[in-house]
Design a protein that fits this description.
Elements lengths: L9 H20 L4 H10 L4 H25 L9 H20 L2 H21 L18 H14 L4 H12 L4 H25 L5 H24 L5 H22 L3
Helix pairs in contact: 1-2, 1-9, 2-3, 2-5, 2-10, 3-8, 3-9, 4-6, 4-8, 5-10, 6-7, 6-8, 7-8
């Protein structure tokens, strides 16, 4: 049980911390930073269940910070999203339970495919225009399938969940990009924290590594936010996603065909 320590070479540890920093930087500018940390942990050779648990610990740092910032700016109102909060919790609980039960060999072959598919989707997707209407007309019945589905996905794997939340919320409700991002960050925090609890109980969290990567991610997010405010950074998104696609292809080659 990797409660505190796992055997990682100092060079590999440094690379993972840098990747987390870069993921936080990119996430603050373009979104989707989790698409970088998951394949990086897999490439480092960690067992897949430990990868998922440690990645959830790392991601919880970033999503907690972001969701609190949106709440403080009154860009998210919990009372309007009670159904989504409950649905996200239940979905993530079921998803993390399923991920824990899936054999490691299956996860090794499945995760690169999931990351690659999400990368392709985000590369070619465009932000939709929000539907017209009042902010109060949230179509709350739609919150159940949306939250259960995305919560379940985040519990099982999770790459790209924040972007999926943002895009689907703008399609389903009269929200602009800023308010949809507030919903996305908060729900992402709920599903990350719920899944993390399941992985903690099962002993699949490398604490020192996850906390270190989480702090690096927060530092990157701080710098990324300042960079986004100062100037145009649109070029970062396609480059970042192309790197993600390349990493996932490398993992697929390794785990599907047994090639290093």
């Amino acid at each position: 049980m990797p409660l505190l320590e796992i055997a990682i070479e100092p060079t590999t540890l440094g690379i993972l911390l840098f990747v987390a920093f870069l993921a936080g930087f990119i996430d603050a500018i373009a979104g989707g930073g989790g698409l970088l940390t998951l394949p990086a942990l897999l490439t480092a050779g960690l067992p897949p269940h430990l990868v998922l648990g440690t990645n959830k610990l790392c991601a919880t740092f970033g999503s907690a910070t972001a969701s609190y910032a949106f709440y403080r700016r009154r860009l998210f109102e919990p009372k309007l999203w009670r159904r989504a909060l409950i649905g996200t919790f239940l979905g993530a609980l079921l998803g993390a339970g399923l991920a824990h039960a899936v054999p490691a060999d299956w996860l090794n072959q499945l995760l690169p495919l999931v990351v690659f598919g999400c990368g392709l989707y985000l590369l070619f997707s465009r932000m939709p225009s929000p539907p017209s209407g009042s902010d109060m007309a949230l179509g709350r019945g739609r919150q159940w399938p949306q939250s259960l589905g995305l919560g379940f996905y985040d519990g099982v794997a999770g790459p790209g969940t924040g972007a999926f939340w943002t895009i689907s919320s703008m399609l389903l409700y009269p929200l602009d990009l800023l308010k949809a991002s507030g919903v996305a960050r908060t729900m992402n925090f709920i599903s990350n924290g719920t899944a993390l609890g399941v992985f903690i109980i099962s002993g699949h969290v490398a604490w020192v590594l996850g906390i270190g990567m989480g702090l690096a991610l927060m530092a990157g997010a701080f710098l990324g936010a300042r960079t986004a405010i100062k100037g145009d950074s649109r070029f970062i998104r396609p480059i970042f996603i192309l790197v993600v696609l390349a990493m996932s292809l490398r993992l697929a080659w390794q785990h599907w065909f047994g090639m290093a």
